[in-house]
Amino acid sequence: MSRRDAEKALEAQLETSRVRLLAEPDRTGLLATLKNEFPDLSDNLYIVTTIPEEAVDVYEVLMDAETIVRAEIPRHPAEPGVVVETMPLDEYRKSASMTKSARRTIDTAIRLAWARRA
Fold it and tell me: What is the pTM of this model?
């Protein structure tokens, strides 16, 4: 697969996850959590990382091309403990633990998000 093909595939993956997120019917999932924390939430959201853990699902979402939101959502709705943190995009990009693949994903998501703002 060429580099351009890989980039197009990543763009398609990010856009598909954005559409699925916005169509989420569950009132206890990621979209509901984001809307609860950010009442003026736009549809300019890209999931850049998903980490399924034993008790929670962890998501990192690029919001409006400026902010990363990290949400930890319990797998069982009856369990309390939704955790939401925000981080400036610049700080997130400087993360020492960010892999080359993660950098490619965030860079592509930023480009897509800026295009949606135009």
Answer: 0.91
